[in-house]
Every structure is written in C-alpha cells, then in structure tokens.
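re: ur question from yesterday

yeah so i grabbed the chain u mentioned. its 618 aa long if i counted rite. heres the sequnce exactly as i have it in my notes:
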Amino acid sequence: GKSPTERAKLKTNAEIPIDGVKVAVDQSVCDETVIISDIFNLNEMDALELVLSGESQKIHFDCLNRGLIAVVCYYDVHRLLAVLLRTMLEWDKESTHESLRGFIEQNFVQRTVFQHLLQLQATFNVTSEFHMLSQPHVNGLGGPRHQNLLRGVIEEIRENAAEALYSLCEWGAEHANEFLSDIYPILKGVPLAEKFSPHHLSAWICLIKLTSSHVLSQTTSASTVLSNLVKEIRNETVWSDQSVCGTVQLACAIALRALAVSPADHLNITNVEVDVDKVVDRAIKNLSMVFIRHGIIGSDSFKMCSTHVRVLDAMLKQLIALFPAKLMEIERNSEDELTWVDEMAESGQQVTPALHYENFLRCISDLYQLANDPKTSAVVKASITELSLAYSSSGSMELCRFMERARLSHHVVHAVAYLDLLCAVCRTTQSAAFIFDVFARVPPNDDVHVGWDHVMSALRSYERLFRERAGPTSMFGHSIPSQQLPKPIIPPRELIGLISWINLARIVVDLDSDAAEVFLEERQWAVLDAALGVVSAPVPLSLKGALLRLIAALAKREASVMRIWNALNAHGICTFAENGALLGLQKELDERECVEEMFDTSLGFVHLLKSLLSHSHM
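ran it thru and got these structure tokens back, copy pasting raw so excuse formatting
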C-alpha cells in the first residue's frame, strides 16, 4: 500500500534506485506516480515502476501517453496474476505432487481467498473501473482505443477470477461449510423477479459445485454440509425470491440422491432426514425451472463463461438420470393441466397454466441455443457442442430414453417443446444420426408414437388438400375455383407442430448425409414434391420459409441438385406470365411479405439458391 516514507522520495530531479539502478525523475513523473499510487492504493515505488514501464512501452502503443499506458500495464499485470491463479487451481488435485498440493492448499484454498474472489464479481467490472479512472483528479481514461484495451483486459480479469473461484470450490471440499456460509446471504438477498447479477451467478455456481456429489464425495463432512443446506431451504420466507430458493432446493435433492446411489460408503448421509422427492416437488412449485430459464440462462453474464454452462448442464442431466419417475409424474400432471386449460378455453374461460414440464424442457433447449447467440464466446460454443454428444447413442441410457419420449403423442405444447429441445441439442453428426433413428424406428401404423412416416404423411395430406381445392386456373396460391369450396386452413396448433418437425428435419439432414439421402430417396415420403406443393399453396409464410430451408439443406448434396432445380421449375416457384409479370415467390413478396413485413419465404428461398449455386457442377 501507500507509504509516506516512499512518497517523500518523489522530488523533482531526485535519483531513485530501482533494481540497483538510479533513475532521475522529473516533476511530471512524480505527479503521475502519485496519481497511480492513489487510485490503485499502490506503494509509490511500484507506482513509479508502472509509470516508467509506460514510458518504455510507448513504442507499442501509438497515440497513448505514458500515464495511460501505465494504467493498461497495471491491469495487465493483474490479468497475468488471475491467469496464473486460475491455472494452478485447475490442476488436478489428485495427480498434483504432494508438496505442491500442500503449497496450494496452504496459500490459496482459504476462506479469505474465496471471499475476495467472490467479492471481485460484485465490485470489479468495466463500469466501476471506468468511473474511477474518469474522475477529474485522475484523468486516467483515454479515447476509444485506450478504452477498448482496458475493457478487454478487465473482462479477462473477471473471467479468469471467476474460473479460479469455481476451481477453488473443487479444491475446497473440506471448507465447504464455511464457503457456503458466505454464499447463503448473497442468494437470499437476490431481489424478487430479477435476473442474476454476475455476483449472484458466481455465488450460485459455487453453491452448485460445493454441494455436488463430486465435491462432497471428497470430504467426511458431507452429511453436515447437506444437513445445513436442508435447514437453509426449509425456511423459504427468508429468501427474497422463492424461485431462487427453488433452484437451491433442486440442487439439494440432486446431491442427496446422487450420494445415496454413490458407491462411497464413508459419506454417512442417512442421518440427513428429508424426503428427496418432496424437495423436488417443492422446487418445482417454487418455479425453479422458470428462474433457471430467465434468471440464470437469461442473465447477461451466463454465456460468458464455459463453467456456467457445464455446471447447469450437469445439473439438468443428473435430474434426468436420477429422477426419471418424478419427471414422468410432472409430465403427466402437466398434460392433465393442459387438457383442463383446453376445456376451459372451449367454454370461454381463460386460465394461466403453470407449464412446469414445458419449462423444464425449455431449460435444456435455452441452454444449448446459446451456441446460436453471436454474443456467446467461441470457448462456450465449443463446450456446448462437446456437451451435446451426450444426447446421442454415446450418451447414458437414461438420456437416450428421455429423448425417445419425444416420440410419444404429447399435447402440442409438450410436443413442440420436445422438438425444440432436439433441435437445440442436435449439433454433431452423431446426435443427428441418433435423432433420425429415434423417429425412423416408428412404423407408419403406430397410433401411440409419432415418427418421420407420420410427419411426411401429414405433409403429403396438406399438399393434396390444397391441390384438390385449387381450381383449373390456379396460379401459385391464387385460384379461380370451378365451384365454391371452403378455403383450406391449417389449424394453428398443427401449423406450429408441423414447422417444428420441419425445423428438426432440416437440422438433421444438414448434419447427417445418410439421413439426407433417405429424405430424398424415400418414395413414400416424396419430400420434394410434397414440400414444394405446399410452398406453392396459400399457406402461412412461416411454413413456406421452413420448407424452403429444409430443401436448402437437402440441396447441399451435389447428387440432389438437378432434381431440385427440376422440381422448382415444375411447381412454378419462380416464374412469369406471358406479359412479363412476375409470378410465384416474386409476386408473393409484393402481395404478402411486404404487406405483413414478414420475409420468411424470401429468406428461405435465398438459402435454397445459396445451396444450389454453391456447387461447381449443376
């Protein structure tokens, strides 16, 4: 810290020894040193070294003065320290040499270090640092280039400090109780109906890690940790937001069940008196799934760190693996609730369903759809792709069975949520092949399950319906009927379900060439003719866009190009009248898309053309 003795040495033209070399300093260097010392609470000699470093680094920083470069150097040193701490704590505890492990535990696996790293997530950020640097007496914030440099370094410090904090939890099994005692007040104070701040999110991630079976299996005090956790979640009234309490209740139930089935016999958790299934029920009623979706995954900082994704993903996968019967019960109750809502709607009464099971399914899809967010870092996207491999034949039997439940004939709300989930987790060839096979195994005469045969049959039925209702002078959705027939309409529920199926098919064929070949070659499905027949009919624009994107995915195979060009021509998708007037999609762009300000069809067609024209031979 600051020292009056050292500060007294800062005089104009004074010679100050640094590393055995005397350095002459002028008044401007002294003034800048004092400012650096004051704003960062540094020893004056350390501050002087930063200022001199700024001078020597000017060659690397065009248009920045010595003081501004010194500020960058200060943060860069802390970035390196954060990286060093993170790297040490990410070493595997068991494979680390005993003396090195002892050094790390003695110096870093301490409550004070945990508290400091946790507090950094609350107080150290770009906004707070820029505010401090922009004070008139400091003047330490430069123009856009300087700000961009600082922003990058500060965000790196935050990320590395957060990762170090999470790794500290892995090392700190024996400190779990004291670490958790610092976390509970933070989570209990989360304001009602607000997303997690970075501080809240870090505290929550630490709690999930510290109460996980992986960490608790390393300590003999697991029963004490869990007993204290049960006490905290029983008194829901002390939590500002009960849905936050619900997420902790869920974590508690998962930890208890995981340890109960663990082969480790030293944990002795039988004295933790609690009905685990009832804890899950309470967590669901406290809207834990809603908060996970909107308060955790939806928080701004969640997508910035791969550990956030990995911890939540592991939690949801454990819920599926450890509570299959409970999830089926929640699903049945939600199906009954949706049926009741439909009955009430038919009688003209509006009710608000809880949608517990849909929110559970959408927790998974929301998590994996982060990979589609341009703000998500490349590291997080890579982690999501890696984690998605569990949703394939290489995953656990419980996860495979869970995915196969998507074949059941669900209420449309659950059916669409299942399909959206499969779209989100389908990120590799292995996942695509597994998902294709799940639905390919359903025979066409199965009345209990739904598969590709059922979907393609429905698509062909719509194509026939619109074709038969159209008159002899039909022209791309506009017809002069020979006799008045009621205009065919796709019911809203069927429409959203059909679009969800088509989106899943597109993602599958995009990743799995074998599946794409089946979609093209299966004569009973007649995918091209059925899809383009519906595209050329007066159906909602969103359905046309989805179908055109499916054909675009199929068009990536060079062998399919000529067939698709011929089919487009046969259905008059883009054509013109004898007088030169544009017809087909071009006419629809003017008459429907521009009016509705919805351009799904044109965008879908652009994707199709991009695929077709990407081949060197046509």
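noticed a couple things. The mean pLDDT is 91. also The longest helix spans residues 144-171.
anyway ttyl
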